[in-house]
Automatic annotation (TrEMBL), chains A, B, C, D, E, F:
Function description: Catalyzes the conversion of 7,8-dihydroneopterin triphosphate (H2NTP) to 6-carboxy-5,6,7,8-tetrahydropterin (CPH4) and acetaldehyde.
Named cofactor requirement(s): Zn(2+)
Pfam families reported in the protein's UniProt record: PTPS
Keyword rRNA-binding: no
Pathway: Purine metabolism; 7-cyano-7-deazaguanine biosynthesis
Superkingdom of the organism of origin: Bacteria
UniProt cross-references to Gene3D superfamilies, sorted A to Z: 6-pyruvoyl tetrahydropterin synthase/QueD (3.30.479.10)
Family: Belongs to the PTPS family. QueD subfamily.
Name under which the protein is recorded: 6-carboxy-5,6,7,8-tetrahydropterin synthase
Phylogenetic placement of the source organism: Bacteria, Pseudomonadati, Pseudomonadota, Alphaproteobacteria, Rhodobacterales
Length: 130, 130, 130, 130, 130, 130
């Protein structure tokens, strides 16, 4: 299995409803350093998994609507945990891939992993077929 | 598959019996930066894999007896390699999870990975069902 | 010159008033990984710059009131840039040092640097005499 | 599953033929920080996955012919993408393992992953049975 | 003293003339992860050292002509060591700052440091008044 | 001011005498990731601060006697804190530099900094003229 991973980041505010979140129930925020991993069984004719430049572009486009945002307003009624956001970004990148946004060879991609690094001591990810 | 990972560290002394260890047969030591990854197929009702705060607490409790310790005394007769310690910590965290130490939703966890970073050029991990 | 540096982090929300901040004028947030550096010309009788355990404790205490917080409420009317927060934390740690919170040898400290890492591509710091 | 990972690096020049590579079609270069991960279902009699010292040595020997090199000359006619190099290094380390270069216990290794970190925002890897 | 630091990277090829460079006399290359640090004695009216967005833009513009390039052609006859490139980038950013490229408050900047990280085990920097 | 920094590491055991060290009074250990920074006002005729290859070699030679060692035996009666070890390594590298171990241009070096990273949340350094 081959993989390629690209990185970008977002800076968001939110509050998490639910006793389990303790102090994070208050309005606070996070820098999420976002890694997106593209998996492919074999290489394309160009010896790549995916065009890294396009991968960076698609990631930036997907992150646009949630960057410098209050997620309580972007996702009203949702509990926007790190795990929830991993899945949201996964859904959006998978959609972009299926619509050809990653270029000609992107139909060969098998899976996608989205990792959100929230501090030097915590991160989360979601991995699923594309 | 969803995952959440938390980080802590220990500072230990030990000596490794066996020719394969060369200079590490002498009494020496290590800082192990410990990452514990919790895997879960679906999210809990709170949109989480595990309560990160509890995960940090359980990790710190499990690391307590081996932190600032001479492992030749804590594990007499054992060859306490990085790999051995990964499995030891895995066993202890899995036990804590089964006993409810990670909170109500922790019965949904499927697997656990324990990574010990021993320097900027070497690490080891152990992953198995919980 | 000797130095010792300890690390912790906070997760905050805020909005920055001023055209120069572009999209950061909206409510958003950040994880700030905070490094505090203690400088001392010579070592104490215990061969240390500062008690690292106490340094970590003081840092955590200083960060308490601004962790999991909306800084627009904690510092009303202020533009809470990364640089502003570096100076705020510097002021609080210097005060704790002068009041003896860092232990007996802390009167020998000459200066303090506070670094806030806001992403994998940006950080800021403030350094001044204690 | 147990894993051990060791790190080294190479500094290479190359040019990538193919429109998809945009500006990387010109002669340029990269530092690849190389991580090799060894996987093993159970530990050896010495409680290890592989002799870390030997693993570092084998990695350095495999990287020798492509370090400080122009890959257009080392691999004439090939498109030496990061992904291509991951597979090349995988092939060479797997061969060394089968020939006993990793020591007595290396016949128990099940798989190998080779990761090339090409910048702070991009990396690639290849993983396959040994 | 306040400081703000931003990061970007370049991927270059070059060969270094001089016996001291050993194997690096051959055509090879590097990823340089570039950190530029802006120093300022006091904060601007907006509580900043420099507009981070503009700082990133200026850095990207300065790096443009040397990214994806063979430095033997860009700087003919020069020994383009990591240290040499630190100074080159320093000169270009200082010029941009003096010409107002960093925005209205940039006349208050006192100094500039340019760091090139060339691998996980080596880096260089140049610091001087602006 | 120019600077070049190289990295290596050691794995040691020790116990620290003195109430201030709390649990670190027991036999324990550390991985110290060691960074040595060489400072020079101007570049040599080869456009370098120091020969990076020789710098790595000298660092490895200086670290030899304290690697895989019990520092209670190497430095009997001493309190071998991180800060103490920074100064020890500084002394040894400065001596090697004065004796020509860093090559012809090393007489132009002005200062040396030795940083010991002891975990992901703590480090110390010592900087002084060479």
């Amino acid at each position: 299995m081959f993989a390629v991973e690209v990185r970008d980041h977002i800076m968001i505010a939110h509050s998490l409803k639910g006793e389990v979140f303790g102090p994070a129930q208050a309005m606070h925020g996070a820098t999420f350093v976002v890694d997106v991993t593209f998996f492919r069984e074999t290489l394309s004719a160009d010896n790549i998994v995916v065009d890294m430049g396009r991968a960076h572009d698609v990631l930036k486009r997907v992150l646009g609507p949630i960057n410098y945002a209050n997620l309580d307003e972007v996702f009203p009624g949702e509990v926007t945990t790190t795990e929830y956001l991993c899945r949201h970004i996964h859904t959006e990148i998978a959609k972009a891939a299926r619509e050809g946004g990653l270029g000609p060879g992107s139909d060969g991609l098998s899976a996608l992993r989205v990792t959100l690094n929230e501090s030097h001591v915590a991160k989360a990810w979601y991995e699923a077929a594309i």
